[in-house]
Amino acid sequence: MFENVVNLLPELWVAFGQTLTMLAIGLSAAVLLGGPLGILLFLVADGQSLENRPFAVVLGWIVNTVRSFPFIILLVALVPLTRIIAGTSIGPLAAAVPLSFAAVPYFARLVEQNLREVPRGVIEAAHAMGASEFQIVTRVLLVEARSGLVLALTVLAISFLSYSAVAGVVGGGGIGDLAIRYGYYRFETDIMVVTVAILVVLVQLIQFGGNRLAKRIDQR
Amino acid sequence: MNAPLPQAQAQPRSLIRIEGACKSFALPKGGSFDAVRDVSLDVYEGDIFGLIGKSGAGKSTLLRLINLLERPDSGTITVDGQELTRLSKRGLRAARQNIGMIFQQFNLLQNATVYDNVAFPLRIHDALNAPRLAARVEECLEVVGLADKADSYPAQLSGGQKQRAAIARALASRPAVLLCDEPTSALDAETTRALLDTLRDINLRLGVTIVIVSHELSVLGAICNRVAVIEDGALAEQFDLADTAVPRKTALGRELAWYGTEGYTQAAWKGVERV
Questions:
Q1: B64: closest chain A residue by CA
Q2: Across chain B, how many H-helices and E-strands are there?
Q3: Which of B67, B90, B120 to probe by mutation at the A interface, max A CB count within 10 Å?
Q4: Which residue among A165, A209, B151, B225 is buried most deeply as judged by most CB within 10 Å?
Q5: Closest chain A CA to residue B173
Q6: pLDDT digits (tens, 9 = 90+) for B36-89
Q7: What is the pLDDT of residue B90?
Q8: In this complex, is the C-beta atom of B87 within 8 Å of any C-beta atom belonging to chain A?
Q9: Backbone angles phi, psi at B4, to 5 degrees
Q10: Could you say which of A121, A129, A220 has the minimum Cβ distance to residue B155?
Q11: Does any CB of chain A come closer than 8 Å to the CB of residue B125?
C-alpha cells in the first residue's frame, strides 16, 4: 500500500523544501514590512501619539482591500508584478511573491492588535520620562507586546502553510500542492493521508514552538 | 492674623508656576468639557504640595499639565525657570528629565526587571556611561529600600514594592520635581503610610519638590505643607496646612483643617507606633 508513498519520497522531499522556502520568504516579508506597517497603524490610530485620522483611514482602507482578495485571485492578479520581482511567474519563488503580498497586511493587523494591548499608562510613563516616539516603539511597545507578537507570527505561519497549498496553481509546489495533485486529482488516498499527516505534524510543531517561546519571554 | 508681610525675604523660589492654564476635552458626542479653567498656581521649592478635589474635578489633569502630558489650550507652565509651553518637542523631552512622575497603576515595564525599569530614563537620554549608570540605579533602589529586588520582575513584587520601584525610576535622572498621581490609591493603609514616609524622606533628604494628587484627605494631611482645592476645574482655595487660623472656604478645606492640628500629629504618631 505504501509503495506509492515510497516512490514519491524524492518528490516529497522537494515539496517539503518548497514549502519551507515559501514560508520563509512570506514570513520574512511579513515581519520586515508588515511589522513596521502594523506599528504605523497603531501609532496613527485615535488617541495614540501620532494620531492622524485621514492617514489612518487611508492606510486602514488599503490594508483591508488587500486582505479582501481571495488568495487564489491575488495569486493570478499579481502575475505581472511577480514577473518583475521574481523574474518568472512559476515556481516556489514566484509563489512567494503573492504569498508575501498577502502576509504583509495580515501581520500588520495582528501587530496593531497586539500593540493595543500594551497598557496606555506604560506608554504615558515613557512620555513623561522624555522618551521619543522611536524609543517608545523599540523600548516599550515591542518589549511589552513581545510574547503576543510571537504568537501572532505563529498564527501567521500556520495560516500561510495552508495558503501555500494554493501556490500549486502557479507551479509553486509544496506539500499542500502534492496533496492536491496526487491525493485529490488522482485519488491516491495514501499520498493524501501522508501529506496531510505531514502538514498536521508541521502545524503542531509550529504552534508548540510558538507557545513555548511566547511563554518564556513573557514576564507579565 | 498678621498683616501680609513685605514679601521677598522669606519667600522661597517658585519652582512650578502655572499661569492662566485652561484645558478642555472634546466629548465623543460633540461639545467639550472644561477640565481645567483658568488656574494660576505657584509651587515653591521644597514644598509637598497637595491637589485635592472630587473625582472629575480636574486635579489629575492639572497635574498632567505640569509636565505637559496634557498641553494646555491656553496659559503657560514654567518649571525650574524653563517655560515648558514654549519648548520644542526635543527641548521638552530633555526638560522632562527634571520632572519625575509616578502613577496610581505604577506603569512599570512588565517585561523588564526592576533594574532595567530604573535604568530606563537614564538609557533613553544616554545620560551616563555604563558604570555610573549602574551606580545610579543602585543608589536609587537604595533610597526606596529595594536594593535586593533589582533582578525581580514587577509581577513578582507587591503593590507597595511596585510603587517603590516606580519612585526609584522617577528619581533616576535627579529631578527637581516629583509628580504623584494618586500614588497610594491602589495600596492598603499600612503600605500607604510606609510609602508616604518614603516620599517625605525624599523631600527632606534629596530636596525634591513634590506635587501629589489624591482624593484621600488622610494622605494629603499626612505629608503636605500646602494644599490646593480644585472644584469644577477651577482653583477654589489654597492654604498652608498648618495655618488653621484663616477660615477655609471649601468643605474639603475645612475637613483638612484637623490634619494641621497637634491632635492629628499625635494620633498619627500613635498610629505609626502600632505598625
A1: A128
A2: 9, 10
A3: B120
A4: A165
A5: A129
A6: 999 999 999 999 999 999 888 899 999 999 999 999 999 999 999 999 999 999
A7: 95
A8: no
A9: -55, 125
A10: A220
A11: yes
> 10 Å Cβ neighbour count for B13?
11
Going from N- to C-terminal start, the domains of chain A cover 3-216
Q: What value of ipTM does the predicted structure carry?
A: 0.88
**Cell numbers that stand for A103 in this block:** 502576509
**How many CB atoms are located within 10 Å of the residue B149 CB?**
21
Query: Are residues A131 and B105, on separate chains, in Cβ contact within 8 Å?
Result: no
CB contact under 8 A, A122 and B108: yes
Chain A residues within 8 A of B107 when measuring between CB atoms = 119, 121-122, 124-125
CB < 8 Å to A127, chain B: 69, 96
Residues of chain A with C-beta less than 8 angstroms from the C-beta of B166: 125
**How far apart, in whole angstroms, are the C-alpha atoms of residue A121 and residue B208?**
23
Residue B3 DSSP class: P
Grid coordinates belonging to A144: 511589552
> Phi, psi at residue A130, to the nearest 5°?
90, 25
What pLDDT shows up at residue B1?
47
Residue of A nearest to B111 (CA): A219
Whether A144 sits inside 8 A of B110 (CB atoms) is yes
CB pairs under 8 A between A and B: 72
Return d(Cα B165, Cα B181) in angstroms, integer: 15
Measuring CA to CA, how many Å separate A55 from each of A43, A60, A113, B26, B222? 11, 8, 18, 21, 50
* Dist CA B5 CA B213 (whole Å): 30
Coil, helix or strand for B68?
coil
Whether the CB of A217 is below 8 Å from some CB of chain B: the reply is: yes
User: Is A54 in CB contact (< 8 Å) with chain B?
Assistant: no
Residue type, B48: I
Q: Which residues in chain A are contacts of B92 at CB distance < 8 A?
A: 130
B64 contacts B53 by C-beta, under 8 angstroms: no
Amino acid at residue number B44: Y
Find the mean pLDDT for residues B115-142.
95
Report how far residue B123's alpha carbon sits from residue B231's, in angstroms, rounded to the nearest whole number.
39
Q: Residue written as cell 528629565?
A: B97
DSSP element (H, E) containing B64 = helix B59-66
pLDDT, tens digit, 9 for 90 and up, residues B157-203: 999 999 999 999 999 999 999 999 999 999 999 999 999 999 999 99
Are B106 and B97 a contacting pair, CB within 8 Å? no
Nearest by CB: B124 against A139, A143, A220: A139
Q: Which CATH superfamily groups domain A3-216?
A: MetI-like (1.10.3720.10)
